[in-house]
Amino acid sequence: DASEQKTCPASWIVFLGIIYTFTYFTTDQYVPSLPQMKVDLAATQSLMSLTVQMNFIVKALFGLLAASLSDRIGRRPVLLFCLVLLSLASFCCACAGRIEWFFAARVLQGIGESVEPVLFAIVRDYFADPRERFGIVSVLQVMSIGGMLVAPCAGGLLAELSGWRTSFFILAVIWGLLATYAWWTMVESCGEGESASYLKDLSRILDPHLLCLLLTQSCIMGGCLTFNANSSYFTQVTLGGSVMMSAFVMLTFGACNSLGALVTGNCCTGSIFKVSKV
């Protein structure tokens, strides 16, 4: 009912944006340190690169479950669980002594980062108008892009000053603070309307138009992840550069991607709204 439309405080938009930003920051911040981490964790280049790509695979798979689960038990418990898990997983990453433990902690981080579709579900709960909702999602995207640009430099700087584990300890604290804030302030936004079966929810993804978009996005992300997972090795091992040089390469690559996304978004807004109605 339009008259009962819930209002969303501006602080919550910022809060959702911070969570969305740090789901990407968590990975991008340690990529410049991969060569040193390979030595510290007694790993190989392939395994260290896999910790980057595998995280996104886990996040994608569990995202399907988290989104549907939040429709049934509510946004609040799913969000709180994921934030607490991210705090614990980040702490485990910082304490890992071997690649096996780090790999397991990254899997847990991927499960925690599956909160991403729940964030957009919360936006949908509060903003019924598609254009208004698109504007809010754009704000979240801008915040996440900013985080992705800053992450390599921040992680690289901390790695040079005090080691790569420091950034994971800091992330554990940040995720813990976000979980505490959500515990005290979050109000359930999902109504108690009829819920369809999980298989029916999943079948929406099999729509040919949406499936094509998902596959296209997968190809784009695959190229980006391959670059990110190996750029630090190329910069430091092949070219003999520093950690900060790797961070600068990632910053430049991210800035070019952001510029392209901005131009595309401004040129194709009408088409985006048309596709969103499918």
In CATH terms, the superfamily is: MFS general substrate transporter like domains
CATH topology type: Growth Hormone, Chain: A
Which structural class should the secondary elements be placed in? mainly alpha
CATH class label: Mainly Alpha
Alpha carbon gyration radius: 19 Å
**Biggest sheet character:** none
The end-to-end span amounts to 23 Å
For the record, the CATH architecture stands as Up-down Bundle
The total count of helices amounts to 12
- The ordered H/E elements are HHHHHHHHHHHH
Estimate the helix proportion, in percent. Answer: over 70%
Low-confidence blocks of residues: none
Strand fraction: under 5%
Please give the number of β-strands.
Answer: 0
Count of discrete domains: 1
Assign an overall shape: globular
